[in-house]
Amino acid sequence: MLVGDAFGFLDPLYSSGVLLALRSGEMAADAIVEGFQLGDVSAAQLGKWGPVFNQGVDRMRRLVCEYYDGFSFGQFVRTYPHLRGTITDLLIGDLFTDRVDSVWPPMESLYPEGKAPPPPWDSGTSPQHTQNKANELILPEGHRP
Fold it and tell me: CB burial class (10 A; 0-12, 13-18, 19+) of residue 62?
């Protein structure tokens, strides 16, 4: 079972690596304990946390890509003050709940004309290969700090 950076490295900008390493360890431990309780330590049982974890990592990856592409989080909060708490939750690591996905459409409304959101980490990968593909950060072309 891989956890932490062995499972997938993202970006040191937000110090997300520590959070993701700890969370992946926690999720893996839960799967192990449940596997022992069920008498099932198969790869499917021990790896069942992977898709949920990947979805959370992809949320953080999107924030990192937005930052590198010059997105103004300050303007976002000024324009959508009711989402201040949600964007803060995402930035501090509340990545594993669908509730936080409410920020993406308003964020996209602030894009310059013709700009598309960053593709998901597994875009262009067939479903049969996605399950074995590690997370990867692909920065969009454009502004670099």
Answer: buried
